Amino acid sequence: MTTQNPFDSATILDGIRRWVEIETPTEAPSQVNKLATLVADRYSSLPASVERIAGRNGCGDHLVTRSSWGQDAPGILVLSHLDTVHPLGFIQRLPFKVEGDSAFGPGIYDMKGGAYIAHHAFRQLCATGQKSPLGITHIFTSDEEIGSPTSRALIEAEGQKAKYVLVTEPARDGGKIVTGRKGVGRFEVFIKGVPAHAGSRPEDGRSAVRELANVIQTLEAMNDTKRGITVNVGVVKGGTRPNVIAEEAYAEVDLRVPGIAEADELVPKILSLKSRGEGVSIKVIGDLNRPPYEKGNAGAALYEHARTLAAELGFELVDMFTGGGSDGNFTASHTATLDGLGVDGKGAHTHYEQLYISSLEPRARLLYRLFQTLR
Question: pTM of the full predicted structure?
């Protein structure tokens, strides 16, 4: 008599499909809440409590699920997000489908696949009737793709109470796990000049667009690939008509830094940008919205433990540092954090986003074994 494999990839994929087929753009809170309701229902039969935190500022609700055991001591915090970058209706362009080892769909790789396999691992743990050595808290947020503005305080508070943090962002470059991420800063630049007729009285004007060009050159000069510093002016706007000296100009800037020292150096530089010309003012607002995630001793030890478990399961777990930010950036400075524990695949945020079906069982089993063995 054969026993059914509780980590059968077809069963796991069917669960992921249900989550993927509810589209959840961050800016569509009613859709995110629809999936949150489905996720909460999945816990109704488990030894766990579910707290639903009402959304605000145009974002959906957050869910906090807690195992019925181990909540009186620091335990395991799992971080997942339910929102995606894909606009409503994108599923018509990228419907759920399976081709060979790939399953496609909006957000399937980033990160509904990872969120689901962590839930599945917890579900299987409960099915055994055994309690993990540590309590398990799993947060499902609604706003990670826009920088976690309404969930950051919740993540930081729960992260400080936890002993370990496991983040189900997707695996990278063939299944690599993430043990470090760059810090992320976001800034807005507002430039005010003096308008004038570009033909008859150009000398009366002070061009905000010209000053923006100077600002862009200054920001671009801050790039330092050897030190891992990137500054990108991604959005620019300005002026009203070609025959008017531009009174206003605007830019949005992205900063990535490998460590807190670089952040302490670059953030003040960007905030203190000055005009090169008279009669033009510059105002910069913004800050680091995700601190650098640096691989400390506790995080290194957690990675080594996971690597040993992966080897027992028959695959090699390689770690890496990445420039992208995640909610792990909020916890890594004070709590052992391991990121990239989600599914393997490719094409996050694209029209060909996909997970690799062959990664479902080993990645779900790894999370299951982490729940069983972390103490």
Answer: 0.91
